[in-house]
Write a structure and sequence with these properties.
441 residues; mainly beta; Maltoporin, Chain A; 2 helices; globular; disordered N terminus
């Protein structure tokens, strides 16, 4: 059992900064440079953004809107050598809120380092820190729509900071066969006591083996200890096994077995999830591919009747001359304890979505995404259903080599059995950014 600690918001930021600085010193000074010349680059960027949100508290009625103006300078340092690479990013943001006439300073920082310790042994370190009140700040900074840190839109505009650090060692012990071990440490701290803080410890391991030209297998295990302040802790064991059989360069079949066990520290709410499925990955053409996996999941617990759910993962991908599009769907059980809200927990869900990224012209890029999701939460006193529609539209125009003008609009509509949990929110922004390589040596 890990040592439990309660860390206040201010001291947590201080500790996170100290850990990041210490990691940087170790990486840059303790480990000698790789053989051969290294290319170093320092890039500067600045972003000016005007934003609007129609329902900052995510409430059913008495909505309050907000206009903000933000200025974000960004420094990016990169170092590329023959056997290692290092990237550092820091982006503070000055934000002025027009309705309250208040201002704040947000922070975002990232560190990525990887190094070949031997010919087939690679070590990697990744750390991301975000301090903001925007639930989308982490995803925008990391330029991804999903990840190990997901801040729920339901939080609205609530001040928080989060830090995620991962280190992994991967060894290629045979051709296209890998063994990896690692550890992830995640923290979330909130200014508002209505939202729970947590520290998450996650050691993990994975093993993949290519038996022949046709057969491969992957197995993974992750242990997670969720230390929730002022609440009981949650211990999770999670494992997945995939066995693949490739019949041709264009097609492979696979079977999957999944296991997840959640153990609560005090209350008798422990449960186990089992999953069995089979699927196919198929290249339909040089530009189009299909992935389909179907099966069943079983939810087993001692204090209630068991249940099961249809398990499905499907995606159709198509590459375009200047972009791509994807149609996807999922169903099964979802474990949602680390999204910054208190009563999500385990849900039986299904979702369907669409995403398009397209270059309208040489200088104009656009993206469109939409998704619909239904959840039935299993751990609430009465199972409750929630329906969520999300849409997002973005467009960016690059000009004069260093500049870009961009705009975006997002819409969220939540319809819940409990009226108080229903809300609607419009989010729009427009901005101007500039970026240039300042030094290269």
């Amino acid at each position: 059992m890990f040592l439990k600690r309660t860390i206040s918001g201010a001291s947590g930021v201080f500790h996170a900064s100290i850990l990041a600085a210490a990691a940087l010193i170790v990486l840059v000074h303790v480990f000698p440079p790789s053989a051969g010349a290294a290319v170093k680059n320092l890039r500067g960027e600045i972003d000016i953004r005007q934003g609007y949100e129609s329902n900052i508290d995510r409430v059913f009625e008495d909505e309050e809107y907000e206009w903000t103006t933000g200025v974000t300078p960004r420094l990016i340092y990169s170092r590329q050598a023959q056997r290692s690479s290092l990237s550092l990013i820091y982006a503070p943001s000055y934000v002025y809120e027009w309705e309250t006439e208040e201002d704040r300073v947000d922070h975002a920082a990232g560190l990525t380092y990887d190094r070949y310790l031997a010919q087939r042994l690679q070590w990697s370190v990744d750390n991301t820190f975000v301090r903001s009140d925007d639930p989308y700040a982490y995803a925008e900074f990391t330029e991804t729509d999903e990840g190990d840190i997901e801040i729920s839109d339901r939080r609205g505009r609530r001040r928080y900071w989060t830090n995620r650090a991962t280190t992994e060692l991967e060894w290629e012990y045979a051709r296209e066969s890998f063994f990896g071990i690692g550890y992830t440490h995640t923290m979330l701290r909130n200014r508002d006591d209505a939202f729970r803080d947590y520290t998450r410890h996650s050691p993990f391991a994975s093993l993949s083996r290519r038996f022949s030209q046709w057969w491969t297998a992957d197995i993974s295990y992750r242990y997670t200890l969720g230390d929730f302040d002022d609440e009981e802790d949650l211990e999770t064991h999670e494992s997945d096994l995939y066995v693949y059989y490739r019949t041709s360069p264009m097609m492979r079949y696979f079977v999957h077995g999944g296991y997840l066990q959640n153990n609560y520290e005090e209350t008798p709410r422990d449960y186990t999830l089992y999953t069995a499925s089979a699927g196919i990955d198929r290249e339909l053409s040089p530009l189009r591919s299909l992935s389909l996996e179907v099966g069943n999941s079983w939810f087993v617990r001692d204090d209630a009747s068991d249940s099961d759910a249809f398990y499905m993962r499907a995606a159709l991908d198509n590459r375009l001359q200047r972009g791509n599009w994807r149609i996807y769907g999922e169903s099964g059980y979802d474990v949602r304890y680390y999204e910054g809200v208190d009563d999500e927990g385990l849900s039986e869900y299904w979702l369907a979505g669409l995403r398009i990224d397209h270059g309208i012209s040489q200088n104009v890029m656009g993206s469109l995404s939409a998704s619909y999701r239904e959840d039935v939460y299993e751990e609430r006193a009465d199972s409750e259903r929630e329906k969520r529609f999300f849409g997002d539209l973005r467009i960016a125009y690059s000009f004069a080599r260093y500049y870009a003008l961009y705009a975006g609009y997002g819409y969220t509509d939540v319809d819940a059995d409990r009226e108080a949990r229903s809300y609607e929110n419009h989010r729009a922004y427009i901005g101007l950014s500039a970026g240039k390589d300042l030094l290269q040596w």
